[in-house]
Amino acid sequence: MITVLTVLVGLAMLATLGVLLAGVLGMAGGSGDSTRSNRLMRWRIGLQFLALVLFAILLLLVKR
User: Fold this and answer.
1) How crowded is the C-beta side of 14, counted as CA atoms within 13 Å?
2) d(CA 48, CA 58)
3) Which residue in 2, 21, 52, 62 has its CB near the most CB atoms, within 10 A?
4) Alpha carbon of 37 to those of 33, 52, 57, 58, 64: distances in Å?
C-alpha cells in the first residue's frame, strides 16, 4: 500500500509539473488564449491538491 501511494504521489507531482510547464510555455509563446490559461490553472491547482492529500495519507501510514 505504501509503495502504491508513493508512486501515486510521484505521478501527481509530475502531472502538476507538466501542467505548470504547459501554462508557462503557453504564456511565453504569446498565444494570449485566456480560456486555455484558466483551464490549465484549475488543473494545476487540482493536481497540487491531489498530490498534497496523497502525501498526507502516505505520511499517516508511514508513522504507524
Assistant:
1) 6
2) 15
3) 52
4) 6, 23, 30, 31, 41
Q: CA geometry: angle at 36 spanning 11 and 22, to 5°?
A: 40
pLDDT per residue as tens, the chain (64 positions) = 889 999 999 999 999 999 999 988 888 877 667 888 889 999 999 999 999 999 999 999 998 7
Question: What is the C-alpha separation between 13 and 3, in angstroms, rounded?
Answer: 15
> H helices within 1-64, ranges in order?
2-29, 34-63
Cell of 28: 511565453
- The amino acid present at 18, given as its one-letter code, is G
Integer Cα distance of 60 and 64 in angstroms: 7
Total count of residues recorded for the chain: 64
